[in-house]
UniProtKB/TrEMBL annotation:
Its main location: membrane. Belongs to the cation transport ATPase (P-type) (TC 3.A.3) family. Type IIB subfamily. It comes from Cyclopterus lumpus. Residues 313-325 have a biased composition (Basic residues). Catalyzes the hydrolysis of ATP coupled with the transport of calcium. The keyword Transmembrane applies. It is an enzyme of class 7 (translocase). Its EC number is 7.2.2.10. It is a multi-pass membrane protein. Residues 46-122 form the Cation-transporting P-type ATPase N-terminal domain. The keyword Glycoprotein does not apply. This is Calcium-transporting ATPase. InterPro entries: ATP_Ca_trans_C, ATPase_P-typ_cation-transptr_C, ATPase_P-typ_cation-transptr_N, ATPase_P-typ_cyto_dom_N, ATPase_P-typ_P_site, ATPase_P-typ_TM_dom_sf, ATPase_P-typ_transduc_dom_A_sf, ATPase_P-type_domA. It comes from the Eukaryota.
Length: 1223
């Protein structure tokens, strides 16, 4: 036994020799076995171990009982064979992140300029008089200050360090969050193993060599292993081998299972033989990690040497030993796949299509960057030209070598100003804002049961226009129970007592349920006393097991009689069969097959049915139709899932059937029973669907159930409403209608169906994929659709991949479905999707808020720097000050505005869609409106500030002049205006109350308060580095007052309706603007434009008209009484009114008096706040044009309403109407 140890292996450790004696299989031996395939692996196992059981003996495990679960044994196995963990890629250190942040081009330029400035300020020729170099160079009075000239260069370097550290810290925290998310996903993964004879679920990381693992449909294999028992097992090995065909696995043909492959059909048991780094997928990860880590030339050289030595050894081995050739060929074959194939896959996976938001942001960042670069170049050019003209032409200063260092200092200063303009203009905070917003949302979404696997899915969900949802478990509770049954000719509305069912029928029913349900499915005792029993495994099968228990029979005794190893053949459930069958071999050589499946499919394969005595009788088509009409349809109409249970006997005299011919095997069945399974609709789902519909999202149900059940559940959920003209169809009909005579799918045909389709029943995963693809590719509607899809099965993978956002079920979902998805619903609940929509929309709005704030600062800062350079030969905002402003508007603002929590109001608007510009016209109005205010204040202070505050002017200061009070006030006011404008930026649709919900965001409040405190410190104690002097209390009050003016000005900007400003353009489209046709661009201007000023204007107009109408009516009634005239003269007589209700229902109430012309607005209109749906009262002829705003429909009235206006809606002119409305 000791000979089989891995002595000399590189995996060997001290103390392992003691354990090697216990396992007569070495790590190398098992690794070699895993490299083999097909017949080679069967021969190897037979030659070396006798059979798989022999390998189990060598690994000290039992194929039936599994490991005993002893912690010492588990630890020993981990020590010898390794644990099932692949070490994660080494995280970047903080210093590496700092180095990466330093690679930013603008920061490098700034650093170089600052170092040059620092060096030049420290160097000064001793024999040069500065006054001889021009006025701007300063004179003798500046000598003291010129010695402090180094401070500015040092301050810029310090600011750069701050920016770099903040960026690195953000990257570090982001990486930490993602690692936490990854570990959370890994912790969710569990696998079923047999330990101590019990089937238990353990974390994938706890798997060890020697474990007996239960493999089933939909699993992603977490370790390598050898098959012990299989039922119709098919594996997708494409992740490892690249072969797309599913590989059929069996003990006698191909028993090797590889980690990282997917179980596509069937079930089985495997002996785990390799885990972690020693498994096939672990080796690939190790090679990838080795390829990615460039840890220096020494290591690379060492690797090259090793490779050369390996090649030499391989050549020798090939010559000397042909037996080893096969094994080594297997290894070398795997290497090109590992080194070439796998990284290519990774690259393709990384090159995911850009999300809607990413595309818009990229285009916008490029445009702003170009504009910023142009402005910075112009600033530098104008500064240099002005300096040259002023010094050498106007002043006539000769160019001398002594003055050259001073002129270079000027050039460096101009260059620094230009670069800081570029730094402020380039929106490097955009990616940071997106990252922070998404990371924050992802963290919060976890609490809302959404585990986000791909970040961009978060914001894409905000644009979703359609959701294709599964029924079972998503819309329903996924706790299934049999509530009705048809057994032996009797239809039981309530479950029967055991005595009511014939004994033979009962035995067949219990045997069929016990054997023909997956052995991993079982009913467990409740966790808490008095609770419901726990359902483990497939919920439909759990319902059938529950039926067996309710009939006072134990399914476990049947399973003990027929253990899984004794099952002769299993046809596992799949989307094509829609049934499951299990074959048992009897002692006399005959076979019995039990089947269960969709009732309408399985009944067509039944030739007999159990009679009332429990014996088979003929089952004719007419009987089948009666059963469907009297049993199945009533069950389905109540929302019950109908399942048929049947069996078939194969006589020994007929010989062994061809088990591969499924069509002939699954025919001539005898129907035992049809059961109706109830899966109640989740109580919160109808409300969630209503919220989706209100938010402009269409919900479609795609299910495998029959159409009657699906329609009943859809009606309960609110997907279908009484009287709606929507389609419900089955997958078969759907396929017929979307294909042409050649059987090809046509987009035009899909476009005729999907807009009205709400329920697709009896659908296959292919149908779901076709529907999703058809909706996404469709151009039949104005807006292109953004589709979210839910799925749980392995075959749902293509649809989940194709969808813009794929939701996998966390509880019922297979590993394959989870792998293909973008978001995992940890509670399988539809209402969690609605929360994902809210968070997605919130991300989009958060980015828009940040953009609104940042672009206002951009516009103002760049114009101020540029104008200052043109007029005063200097920027009013110094380099260090602009870096501080850049820090405020990039890092801090992105943190403050990107962490706004979502509100229900987000679901009161329609989705933005793919082509909605990032910056709407309302936002553009806000940006330009606030920029106008800020520029007016800054330029007033810049050119008249010294007179207003009676202080010295800071303009035209020499090179090393001390900081001035004048420019400090300009800087302080500018920063305070940004701080107050940050509050305005919280609202992007023109809402008035900018403080609404501000206390719900502590991050925003703390950043706002922190920024203000730091600004006080900078101004009062910043001194020369920040070019500031201390300000008096009075000056501070003026600065705060001017900053606060941003809020007051914001109210004025909000009052201007956007439609008045036709000249405003949108920005940040999904496509480049020149790619969008002019007609489409014109249409997009007003589509979904939310403008609260417009709403207020319409509402105020309505109220004004209503008030005038009432006053006018009341004055006329008073005049009528005063003139001793009947108050009803000119009005319809009250006798004709039978009641107040009829009074309100007829509008022919008239006043014949003449009066001023007053516009009339329909009272019903006044109650409708939606600005886009106004049906105003319009007298003939109706006004032409598309404008449907209420204010445009003004109706001239002689008196109140002309005599020919009968038939108008309820008039607000009557005194009784006025009184009732007031009440």
């Amino acid at each position: 036994m000791a000979n089989n140890s891995f002595r000399g292996s590189k995996h060997g450790r001290h103390g392992e020799a003691k354990h090697e004696a216990e396992f007569s299989c070495s790590l190398k031996e098992l690794s070699t076995l895993m490299d083999l395939k097909g017949e080679d692996s069967v021969k190897k196992i037979k030659k070396k171990y006798g059979d798989v059981n022999g390998l189990c003996v060598r690994l000290r495990t039992s194929p039936v009982e599994g490991l005993d679960g002893n912690s010492e044994d588990i630890d020993r196995r981990k020590q010898v064979f390794g644990s099932n963990l692949i070490p994660p890629k080494k995280a970047k250190t903080f210093l590496q992140l700092v180095w990466e942040a330093l690679q930013d081009l603008t920061l490098i330029i700034l650093e170089v300029a600052a170092i040059i400035s620092l060096c030049l300020s420290l160097y000064s020729p001793p024999d040069v008089e500065r006054r001889n170099c021009g006025k701007a160079a300063g004179g003798e009075d500046d000598d003291g200050e010129s010695e402090a000239g180094w401070i500015e260069g040092a301050a810029i370097l310090l600011s750069v360090v701050c920016v770099v550290l903040v960026t690195a810290f953000n990257d570090w925290s982001k990486e930490k969050q993602f690692r936490g998310l990854q570990s959370r996903i890994e912790q969710e993964q569990k696998f079923t193993v047999i330990r101590g004879g019990q089937m238990i679920q353990i974390k994938v990381s706890e798997l060890v060599v020697g474990d007996i693992a239960q493999v089933k449909y939909g699993d992603l294999l977490p370790a390598d292993g050898v098959l012990l028992q299989s039922n119709d097992l098919k594996i997708d090995e494409s992740p490892m081998t690249g072969e797309s065909d599913h590989v059929k696995k069996s003990i006698d043909r191909d028993p090797v299972l590889l980690s990282g492959t997917h179980v596509m059909e069937g079930s089985g048991k495997m002996l785990v033989t390799a885990v972690g780094e020693n498994s096939q997928s672990g080796m690939i990860f190790k090679l990838l990690a080795a390829g990615e880590d460039g840890d220096g030339d020494a290591k690379e050289k060492a690797k090259k040497k090793e490779k050369k030595e390996q090649k030499k050894k391989e050549k020798k081995d090939k010559k000397n030993n042909k037996a080893k050739k096969g094994n080594k060929d297997g290894v070398t074959e795997a290497q090109p796949l590992n080194e070439d194939g796998q990284p290519e896959k990774k690259k393709n996976a990384l090159k995911r299509e850009k999300s809607v938001l990413q595309g818009k942001l990229t285009n916008m960042a490029v445009q702003i960057g170009k504009a910023g670069l142009f402005m910075s170049l112009m600033t530098v050019l104008i500064l240099i030209v002005r300096f040259v003209v002023d010094t050498f032409w106007i002043q006539g200063v000769p160019l001398t070598a002594e003055c050259l260092p001073i002129y270079v200092q000027f050039l460096v200063k101009f260059f620094i100003i230009g670069v800081t303009v570029l730094v402020v203009a380039v929106p490097e905070g955009l990616p940071l804002a997106v990252t922070i917003s998404l990371a924050y949302s992802v963290k919060k979404m976890m609490k809302d049961n959404n585990l986000v696997r791909h970040l961009d899915a978060c914001e894409t969900m905000g644009n979703a226009t359609a959701i294709c949802s599964d029924k079972t478990g998503t819309l329903t509770m996924n706790r299934m129970t049999v509530v009705q049954a048809h057994i032996s000719g009797h239809f039981y509305r309530n479950l029967p007592e055991p005595g009511q069912v014939p004994a033979t029928a009962l035995d067949l029913l219990i045997h069929g349920i016990g054997v023909n349900c997956a052995y991993t499915t079982k009913i467990m005792p409740p966790e808490k006393e008095g609770g419901l029993p726990r359902q483990v495994g497939n919920k439909t099968e759990c319902a059938l097991l529950g039926l067996a228990l309710s009939l006072h029979r134990d399914y476990q005794t049947v399973r003990n009689e027929f253990p899984e190893e004794k099952l002769f053949k299993v046809y596992t459930f799949n989307s094509t069969r829609k049934s499951m069958s299990t074959v048992l071999k009897n002692h006399d050589g005959s076979y019995r097959m039990y089947s269960k499946g969709a009732s309408e499919i399985l009944l067509r394969k039944c030739g007999k049915i159990l009679s009332t005595t429990g014996h088979p009788r003929a089952f004719k088509p007419r009987d089948r139709d009666d059963l469907v009409r009297n049993v199945i349809e009533p069950m389905a109409s109540e929302g019950l899932r109908t399942i048929c249970l049947a069996y078939r006997d194969f006589n020994a005299a007929d010989g062994e059937p061809n088990w591969e011919d499924e069509a002939r095997i699954l025919t001539g069945l005898t129907c035992i029973a049809v059961v109706g399974i109830e899966d109640p609709v989740r109580p919160e789902v109808p409300d969630a669907i209503k919220r989706c519909q209100r938010a402009g999202i269409t919900v479609r149900m795609v299910t495998g159930d029959n159409i009657d059940t699906a329609r009943a559940i859809a009606t309960k959920c609110g997907i279908l409403l009484p009287g709606d003209d929507f389609l419900c169809m089955e997958g078969k009909e759907f396929n017929q209608r979307i294909r042409n005579e050649h059987g090809e799918i046509e987009q035009e045909r899909i476009d005729m169906i999907w807009p009205k389709l709400r329920v697709l029943a009896r659908s296959s995963p292919t149908d779901k994929h076709t529907l999703v693809k058809g909706i996404i590719d469709s151009t039949v509607l104005e807006k292109r659709q953004v589709v979210a899809v839910t799925g749980d099965g392995t075959n749902d993978g293509p649809a989940l991949k194709k969808a813009d956002v794929g939701f996998a079920m966390g509880i019922a979902g297979t590993d394959v479905a989870k792998e293909a998805s973008d978001i995992i619903l940890t509670d399988d609940n539809f209402s969690s999707i609605v929360k994902a929509v809210m968070w997605g929309r919130n991300v989009y709005d958060s980015i828009s808020k940040f953009l609104q704030f940042q672009l206002t600062v951009n516009v103002v800062a760049v114009i101020v720097a540029f104008t200052g350079a043109c007029v005063t030969q200097d920027s009013p905002l110094k380099a260090v000050q602009m870096l501080w402003v850049n820090l405020i508007m990039d890092t801090l603002a992105s943190l403050a505005l990107a962490t706004e929590p979502p509100t229900e109001a987000l679901l009161l608007r329609r989705p933005y869609g793919r082509q909605k510009p990032l910056i709407s016209r309302t936002m553009m109005k806000n940006i330009l409106g606030h920029a106008v205010y800020q520029l007016t204040v800054i330029f007033t202070l810049l050119f008249f500030g010294e007179k207003i505050f009676d202080i010295d002017s800071g303009r035209y200061a020499p090179l090393h002049a001390p900081p001035s009070e004048h420019y400090t006030i300009v800087f302080n006011t500018f920063v305070l205006m940004q701080i107050f404008n940050e509050l305005n930026a919280r609202k992007i649709h023109g809402e008035r109350n900018v403080f609404e919900g501000v206390l719900n965001n502590p991050i925003f409040c703390s950043i706002l308060g922190g920024t203000f405190l730091i600004q006080i410190v900078i101004v009062q104690f910043g001194g020369k580095p920040f070019s500031c002097v201390q300000l008096s209390f009075e000056h501070w009050l003026w600065c705060i007052y001017l900053g606060f003016g941003s809020l007051l000005w914001g109210q004025l900007v909000s009052s201007v309706p956007t439609r008045w400003l036709k000249f405003l353009k949108t920005a940040g489209h999904g496509r480049r603007q020149e790619e969008i046709p002019d007609e489409e661009l014109e249409e997009m201007k007003d589509v979904d434009e939310i403008d609260h000023a417009e709403m207020e204007l319409q509402r105020s107009t309505v109220l004004w008209c209503r008030g005038l109408n009432r006053i006018s009516t009341q004055i006329r009634v008073v005049n009528a009484f005063r003139d001793s005239v009947s108050p009803y003269e000119g009005l319809e007589t009250p006798e004709s009114r039978s009641s107040i209700h009829s009074f309100m229902s007829h509008p022919e109430f008239r006043v014949e008096d003449s009066g001023p012309q007053i516009p009339l607005i329909d009272e019903a209109d006044c109650e409708d706040d939606a600005p886009t749906k106004r049906n105003s009262v319009v007298l003939p002829p109706p006004p032409t044009g598309n404008n449907n705003n209420t204010t445009d429909h003004i109706v001239p009235l002689p008196g109140l309403i002309p005599t020919n206006s009968a038939g108008l809606p309820p008039c607000p002119g009557s005194p009784l109407h006025s009184l009732e409305t007031s009440l």
